[in-house]
From TrEMBL:
<keyword id="KW-0812">Transmembrane</keyword>
<dbReference type="GO" id="GO:0016020">
    <property type="term" value="C:membrane"/>
</dbReference>
<keyword id="KW-1133">Transmembrane helix</keyword>
<feature type="transmembrane region" description="Helical">
    <location>
        <begin position="7"/>
        <end position="26"/>
    </location>
</feature>
<feature type="transmembrane region" description="Helical">
    <location>
        <begin position="97"/>
        <end position="115"/>
    </location>
</feature>
<protein>
    <submittedName>
        <fullName>DoxX protein</fullName>
    </submittedName>
</protein>
<feature type="transmembrane region" description="Helical">
    <location>
        <begin position="73"/>
        <end position="91"/>
    </location>
</feature>
<keyword id="KW-0472">Membrane</keyword>
<dbReference type="Pfam" id="PF07681">
    <property type="entry name" value="DoxX"/>
</dbReference>
<dbReference type="InterPro" id="IPR032808">
    <property type="entry name" value="DoxX"/>
</dbReference>
<feature type="transmembrane region" description="Helical">
    <location>
        <begin position="46"/>
        <end position="66"/>
    </location>
</feature>
Amino acid sequence: MKIATIIIRTLLGLLFLYTSISYFLHLSPEPASTGEFKAFQLGLMASTYLFPLAKSVELLCGLSFVTGKFTTLANLVIFPVTLNILLINYFLTPENLPLAIFVFVGNIFLIFTHWENYKGLFKMD
């Protein structure tokens, strides 16, 4: 289980690092979007802060996953991002769904492997 955790954590970290660095440094061209997804994406871009915020979170969590430091915190911080990735791809771009499922399930897997660290969040005093 420990080797699987390291592999999933590293793969997710590298994926988050690649997407965030690529966004900030404009390393790859934006894929052409169409239909409802294009309207959704234009709305996100119009907000001017949401994409930089999400990509900053991805960068920090990617660094955390690759280094293995603060992984418990990074799992929680990146969870809303992975949930949105899954839902956006499910409803608007189903052709990208396999990667979105990997990211979401990988995040859930990492939360599960660190469950002892989260038990205190669910205690009723």
